[in-house]
Amino acid sequence: MINNLNKTMNTTPLPRLITAFLLFTFLFLGNITAKEPQDETTAELDLLIQQKNFDQLETRGIQLALKGKPQYYLYIIDYYLDQGEYPRAQNYSSKLVPKDPSDNELLYLRKGRASLGLGNYNEALAYLDKTQTSIYLALTYEKLASEALQKNDLPSARNNFSNAIDVYEVLLTDFHFKWNPSYFAYFKKCLELSDRIEKTGDQKDYYTLLSNTLDGAAKYCEKMKNSAFHFFCKEKIYEVFDQENPYSSSRSPAKIGRSSYVYEYQLIQEENENNKIYETRTLLELNGNKKNVPNSKLEIIGCHYERLIFSPINLFLNPNQPFYFYKIVKEETLWDEPAIVIEVLPLTSNPELYGNVWISKKDYSIMKIQWTPKSIQKSYIIEEQAREFDSEPQITFFAEFKTQKRGIRFPSHYYFNEIYARKNRSNYNRLVLNVDFSDYLFFVVGSEVTEAKADTTGNSSGD
To answer: Domains of the chain: which residue ranges?
Structure first.
């Protein structure tokens, strides 16, 4: 089962970057509808705007709204807001009360934006609390917190900053909301202002625990980064892939593909100035049939991954920590071992994958990472397909690191599940991928870096 240790390495080394790499390939099952060109009515309104004939513009917008076309009424309000004409936007948005509750919510959003622009923050909050989460809600909480700071009302300031951070968290993680890269500046400013407030006793204990955990995780990642690795393991993969259009009236179970693979997986990281990484696979079994194909590619359909062992490095290595926001979610037991669950959110554009991370309280090693689906580099494809399917994407993917050797954890399980939940219809489960890593054989696991140890629980296991 295990190849000879002295076999010739006839493969090109992977790049020097030693972080994990996950590549997701999405099958388009329908044409994504392109943005419609502007219609004649919009062109008519634009002409009135160019002529600065605002009285006629507003009259026309109300006429259209009363005829069941409120989108043009909102279009005019949006123009005022985009131009910073907040008094005009506020005045015009109060002239009609839509019959449809959903239109009312859209109007509340615009009234909230106008109040925010005018500096009426409590009024803005009253409106925005009636709408879906938005950047404007986060900015309103931040403004209220700043006002409270000026009045030395520290409890109110803490509460509003906390609410603002919670909104940013939702915007970064929930598929319902679009994240604009310009929001990172607002998010970082909010965190900086929040950090200036004197901490309560409970907050000091919280931040001490968080700081110690991040420091321990950084040392663990530094040890991993500077270690030399050479190991083999068995990689068992089972994949189910539904290739048929979910709208088809004659869906057939035959269109659902099922594949199983067994690979002998080998990884070598050299401990020298080049720090090259080699990753190879030998296909041992395909759909139950014995094989022996050296230097095989990973043949799965929907989701490719590389170097899972290095997944924690970009999230916790010391030089990288300033580019992320960390929050303790909870403490729990995983595999009979106490763990701290840390949420990791980016503070810069084009971040690596991020999400929730289980960190051992025993030695600060990384036990599990459950990534936020929105952190996938091309997650907009998932969002577009969800809209095409009139559904809500429910994506779950994580990696577990249960196998240990000399203080380093190795992948034991990887899972990816892509579901589109639809109202009043059965869910469309496009892809399920299960990967198990077992039967490890280690030849080199070494490092000159002292392994991280917790202050209270002693040494790590697995030698």
So the answer is: 21-30+221-446
